[in-house]
Amino acid sequence: CIERHQTGYSVHRKILDEGSVDEMAEKSESKTLLSEKVRKSVRCSGPRLKECLLRSVPLLSWLPRYPIRENALGDMISGISVGIMQLPQGMAYALLASVPPVFGLYSSFYPVLIYFIFGTSKHISIGTFAVISVMIGGVTERLAPDSDFMIWDNVTNSSNVDIISRDAERVRVATAVTFLAGIFQILLGLVKFGFVVTYLSEPLVRGYTTGAAIHVIVSQLKYTFGISPVRYSGPLSLIYTVLEMCYLIPETNIGTLVVSIVTIISLILTKELNAYLSKKIPVPIPVELLAVIIGTVVSWQVNLGEKYGVDVVGIIPSGFQPPVFPEVSLFGQVIGDAFALSVVGYGIAISLGRIFALKYGYKVDSNQELIALGLSNSFGGIFQCFAISCSMSRSMVQESTGGKTQVAGALSAIVILFIVLWIGALFEDLPKAVLAAIIYVNLHGMMKQFLDIPVLWKKNKVDAIWVATFILTVLLNPDIGLAASIGFAMLTVIFRTQLPTYSLLGQIPGTDIYRPLEDYNQVRQVPGILVFRSSATLYFANAEMYQDAVGKKSGIDIAKILSAKKKQEAKRERIEKENAKKAKKKGVNMEPEQKDIAFVELEAEPEPSHPRAIILDLSPVNFLDTVGVKANLYLQYSGVVDNLQTGGFFSDKVTNSCLFATIHDAVLYCQSARAQEEVMYCTSIKPTETHAF
């Protein structure tokens, strides 16, 4: 490396403009027609059909080559471990979705099997997820509030909620929004819209999930304290809910609170023990499962539900629900929520999937992931499931216990099948406070994301969009908060183009390298030549600021020059008209060559303090519109990318001869005698055209 840095080189060549470069490199002008692209995309052959089938159903490509000896044991242990975790998490996250706990078990079975067939990530654990569940809970409680199911109880002379009817309606709402979210994901996948996740930057996703976690925590406080607050919806609903909770704290059920505290402390201690023993035991202690079993046994023995008024899970029917197509009449009311669910669920799954793919050296197909998640949700919606994504905690367990392929996910679904068919009814006495405690403890990873703030602030203050996303999500709810956060992220991009760094470049002595004068002590400005660079692209939103910056850096009053040029142009046009009239009266025909000649009086000697030439370094510019072109008056271009070639975009006077391959080519050209002559001539060029100055 040291020898390479010490090696010198010398290059002798002509000054190259873009026209010369195109000629030397033999630039290809051939472009594939749209009709040819369409014809190629619909062309069908045996190999192409096979490739399409294997790409659409990845199971067919990897399962026949599944290495049983290497992967079977690890996948089996991992699948059983994840399936055991799915039981408490599925029931707990069903509470977030405001549906009976058994529907969380359904959501841990059908979608997992569908993803096993169509998914491309080998390590993520598909199933219920806290953020997705709380978003669904917002929809179900908005469209099926308790107030719509109040019935009069003649025994107690009070109004009570018809829980059976309410839960049935909420399940219908949840399945409708889940089915529609799946359809959105399938459509986005078919049109190759997997790149949409690029608009969900990592700081945005982490800020969003942290804000959603706050909603999750607040939504579970009623199970922790055993109170029944009024459900609020819309912006600021979380604030109103917290205030309502504070008002109802005196009504706390002590038995429920004790169960919550004991469970939370036990879970935290056991998880710390798990972390301590992680290298000593092959499989982590199933903390959540133990909490569910112990909580159920204690509740059954002590009769917490009847003696102390602790809210329990209740009836868990054995077996699965028959398939029912979601109510189409609800689609119009949940279409916005469904789209938000589709984007958030996909964003979380693909982000985690790419992390594992990078770690283990395989590729995750973003478009196929959209289709796989869409099929999981749409198919699951028909079988009474609510929307799913991947869980970070389960995915980490699946990886750490030896899971190497999607087989681990399929085995976890078999564990859930066994639970639903035979032992689900044993958990009817499980206190809901235990499930809420499981949710709290599983969110500790998201709470640690607050540590991102100081790191992001030091590295790049624009990435503090984390904070804005968090605040918007907390105040506006997860659905509206997501849209507002993406809008805010787009604004940061616009602001960056409107607040760029403007620099004058100088030459490092003895080299063809140019660097900002203000950043380097040994960089020297080329006499009589000003090299200007902007760190942002150039378009209508910042064109005027760009022009002002050029004037400020060069010390030239651009407005004054523009005014003089307009007067000069008007004078030129007036002289041409007068000459034409005189020629017509005298009956003299002007030669064709003379028609293109403008006899214009040039200005006096230019201001000595002004540079003889201004060169624009457009290497940071990735696109340029007509407004940007007009803002660049009488300027020499350098560092131009392919999409800035003339191609009919610039005026006829701005040809490839004005666009140089490097800054140094432009500088050498401006220093030549030919350039000096052109500089004087170009004082008569119209100000709306781009040229050398």
TrEMBL record:
Key words, A-Z: Coiled coil, Membrane, Transmembrane, Transmembrane helix
Gene Ontology CC terms, in alphabetical order: membrane
TM annotation in the entry: 93-118, 124-144, 173-200, 247-269, 281-302, 338-358, 370-389, 409-427, 434-453, 465-495
Pfam family, one: STAS
Localization, UniProt: Membrane
Listed GO MF terms: secondary active sulfate transmembrane transporter activity
Keyword field contains Membrane: yes
Membrane-topology descriptor: Multi-pass membrane protein
InterPro entries according to UniProt: S04_transporter_CS, SLC26A/SulP_dom, SLC26A/SulP_fam, STAS_dom, STAS_dom_sf
Top-level taxon in the UniProt lineage: Eukaryota
Coiled-coil spans in chain: 558-585
NCBIfam families, per the entry: sulP
UniProt cross-references to PANTHER family, sorted A to Z: SULFATE TRANSPORTER
Protein's name according to its UniProt entry: STAS domain-containing protein
Species, as recorded: Scophthalmus maximus (Turbot)
Gene designation: LOC118317529
